[in-house]
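Following up on my earlier message about pyridoxal-5'-phosphate. Here are the inputs again, as you asked, copied directly from the submission form:
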Amino acid sequence: MKKVLLTIAGFDPSSGAGLSLDLKVFSRFGCYGLAIPTALTIQNSYRVYDYKALSPRLIVETYRRLKTDFKISGLKIGMTGSPRVLTAVKTILADNQGRPVVVDPVFRSSSGRWLLDKNHLASYLKVLAGRMTLFTPNLEEASLLLGRKINQIKQMEKAAREINQLVQAPCLLKGGHLQDQVIDLLDDGQETTVIPKQKLPVNVHGTGCFLSSAILCFLVKGYSLSVACQQASLTVDKFLKSPLTISRRPLFDL
Ligand code: PLP
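Thanks, got it. Here's what our run produced:
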């Protein structure tokens, strides 16, 4: 039977990132996607201008109605946007113990707009720590979490281990912004797995959203965490090679 996945994420009207991209990824991987928006953003393919977080009541009530109708196999959490939204996320996660939860920490857009107030980082971690199957920060998010610059391959193993301890969950540290050789590094608390990547001269909108949603699809299909990360990474690399060029910034052709 088709697996039903739920994304709880921001709405990007360009459909290049966030909730609408997650739905496309779920569908592409043979899953059925449900979506609860946490925030509406004003953005196009290359820049986030503003956003408005939605009310926790709206989020929890939507979840309540969906849950009476669908059997959810896994969850993806993207942009949360406000501490009030986090209270809703907390309620929903408490109701989904034992199901895979992949969290992409969407702290800042690549155009530089903060999507979570830095002052709310502590409450973000408090709500999510220990409740995730996988946490997928990039180097900038890792730097913010650890309070020091992480921008070199040799710093990644220690950083992933520290984030793993901080969030009490496996951490996939994404090295897409490394200068020369690019890797992602998975620390599951016991082992580290290095995932070599190709450095491609493209900056496609929504790369982080694509990867985290694809990992969730592989997890609910029964793959181990490290294989799910590797397979999803290969898939994203494949799609990065032939992006859509209908907008100022390339988009995934899904
Ligand atoms: N908007 C939403 C809703 C997102 O989830 C994200 C990233 O996850 C972004 C914007 C930023 O995307 P990018 O960094 O590709 O510009």
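One observation from looking it over: The two ends are 23 Å apart (CA to CA). Hope that helps, and feel free to reply on this thread.
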